[in-house]
Design brief:
53% helix, alpha+beta, Alpha-Beta Plaits, Jelly Rolls, 6-stranded antiparallel sheet, 4-stranded antiparallel sheet, 19 helices, 15% strand
């Protein structure tokens, strides 16, 4: 059992490490260039059921009430006269059979056949290309509503550069994309691993509940933010996944506390608890069946399930509070459930007010923050689970943490010599060409002697931050000790080393102009692995170090003194 629990903890730590890596990777790979987009908000004419006409409409201020199945919307506007060729349009389809025309030419069509067979039409964002030469032409959008209360506002279409449109869309939603994929990855991994072990140890039931709940919230977040067409542009599949995951999530949330309820052995509490679980499961099966047989579709139950989820969260908080008072456990979980409850209540109140009133003006596409509360709750669940089953192995976890700290320099946050030496060994095992750049600060000893070690540390940190800003595309940056730094470029096949060094010079010079106390000055040398016959990483590093010292000698000789003498000069050198 001890070995099994140790394996489970390693799986949890691995998942968290992968999730952290994914977050860093998405942020690091974020595009650097900005591309223009046009949001078509103004100048619309809107016709509803051929009975209501609105002109010069700003979609940000346009609000409709009591939309019903069968309502017909026709929207017209003129595309910008300066619209370039090769652009794409992104529109939000809100449970409607939708057609888009440019000067009478149909450029997008969705859902009419499904409407006639009473199947659920999906809702979400779609992206399609506009014909070249669309500038100044009439844009017409027709929508045949397929669900009661399908929407209360209409989002303004967005026009993007066709090449970069999808990338811009996802970059604008980087945070929910990161959260949702992290939750899905963690949930899927934990669910698969724990399900495989479930019949060997029922004590991991809680971890299985965490995995299923994380998977549900991650899928729902991905779909509710219309991030699904990273994987699929099928709106029906997206809507099925969105509602399945949302309506199922209360079940694993309550199942997490089964063991605590059974341990208290109070008949009325146990009966109420299992009755609640049974009702939740039956409701999920009934609503799923009604939708699959096209009797009543998922969106009809949305508001009912919002209230049900809030009740589940409140009931869970009562269970947690009982354990906190009686056994002093689940302390971390209290914070998680509080966050989930607050965010859920905020979303429900906002949704109701924006849907049924004009208190906040027109509602653009609804944005939920429940995922943020759920993310906190899942992290609290993870913490609670680990605390409960891993008390006996605390020292082992502490040793793992200390090992990780050994890889990060305390002052700069860069890799330590120990980590760099491991990277050297990894390079020796690979066949790729790489480069090593060695840096050494000038005049650090003089700054320490004249201005104090605090200013010397500030000088080191400033240079480390400059390195981190320039070398942020997969390079390894390390502090070898004192004022020596190293950058390892793992693949130099298309790498422009001179360009990055020039950017570093410019960045350091800009920082020196702004600084009134100390000036950063450095010498560097670099070496490609292909320059050395049968190269070992340490040999490449030594050669880069030699070239750095050659540059350092030139630096001091150009000022008329030797290196040791130069260390005695003032900071203005």
């Amino acid at each position: 059992m001890h070995k099994l629990r140790s394996t489970i903890l390693h799986v949890v730590l691995f998942v968290l490490a992968v999730a952290s890596f994914l977050t860093i990777y998405i942020r690091a790979s974020q595009a650097q260039n900005e591309y223009n987009r046009a949001e078509l908000k103004t100048g619309w004419t809107v016709k509803i059921n051929n009975t209501q006409d609105y002109s010069d409409v700003n979609l940000d201020d346009f609000h409709v009430k009591n939309v019903k199945r069968g309502d017909w919307f026709v929207l017209k506007t003129t595309l910008p006269a300066d619209l370039p060729d090769k652009v794409g349009m992104l529109i939000r389809v809100p449970y409607s059979a939708t057609d888009v025309y440019v000067d009478g030419e149909n450029v997008y069509s969705y859902g009419l056949d499904d409407y006639e067979t009473n199947r659920l039409l999906g809702a979400g964002c779609v992206y399609f290309g506009l014909p070249d030469g669309s500038a100044g032409k009439q844009l017409k959008i027709t929508m045949l509503v397929t669900e009661d209360r399908a929407f209360s506002t209409i989002d303004a279409p967005l026009v993007y550069d066709a090449l970069y449109g999808i990338g811009i869309f996802y970059r604008e939603r980087l945070l929910p994309l990161t959260v949702s994929i992290t939750l899905i990855l963690a949930g899927f991994t934990v669910t698969i691993v724990t399900f495989a072990m479930y019949f060997k140890s029922f004590s991991i039931e809680r971890l299985l509940c965490i995995g299923v709940f994380s998977l549900c919230i991650g899928c729902w977040t991905l779909c509710s933010y219309n991030l699904n067409f990273l994987f699929t542009d099928n709106l029906r599949l997206k809507s099925y996944l969105e509602y399945f995951s949302l309506y199922l999530c209360p079940v694993p949330m309550l199942l997490y506390f089964r063991e605590d309820v059974e341990k208290r052995a109070k008949k009325w509490e146990t009966r109420f608890y299992f009755a609640a679980i049974f009702i939740l499961i039956q409701l999920f099966l009934i609503t799923s069946g009604l939708n699959c047989f096209n009797i009543i579709h998922f969106p009809i139950f949305f508001e009912f399930y919002l209230g049900l989820i809030v009740c589940t969260v409140i009931y869970s908080s009562v269970l947690i509070w009982r354990d906190v008072k009686s056994e002093h456990k689940h302390n971390w979980l209290m914070w998680g459930v509080a966050a989930l409850l607050l965010f859920s209540l905020r979303d429900i109140v906002t949704y109701v007010l924006k849907t049924y009133t004009t208190l906040f003006g027109a509602q653009r596409s609804y944005r939920s923050y429940t995922a943020a509360g759920a993310f906190v709750f899942i992290m609290a669940l993870m913490a609670d689970f680990v605390i409960e089953i891993r008390r006996s192995t605390y020292m082992e976890a502490e040793n793992v943490l200390l090992t990780r700290l050994a890889y990060n320099d305390v002052l700069t946050g860069l890799s330590t010599r120990r980590r760099i030496e491991e990277v050297f060994r990894e390079l020796d095992k690979s066949n790729q060409e790489y480069a090593i750049i060695q840096f050494d600060l000038n005049n650090l000893k003089m700054v320490n002697d004249n201005l104090g070690h605090e200013m010397g540390d500030k000088l080191i940190v400033r240079f480390a931050n400059a390195l981190r800003e320039i070398y942020c595309h997969g390079e390894t940056i390390g502090r070898m000790g004192g004022d020596e730094f190293v950058v390892i470029v793992p693949d130099v096949s298309e790498y422009k080393l001179d360009v990055t060094l020039a950017k570093l010079d410019m960045l350091v010079e800009e920082g020196n102009k702004k600084s009134e106390d100390i000036k950063v000055s450095y010498s560097c040398g670099h070496c490609y692995s292909e320059e050395i016959r049968n190269p070992m990483a340490t040999a490449v590093y030594v050669e880069a170090d030699k070239r750095m010292y050659v540059e350092k000698e030139k630096y001091y000789k150009a000022r008329g003194y030797g290196r040791r003498h130069g260390d005695q000069q003032n900071t203005g050198v």
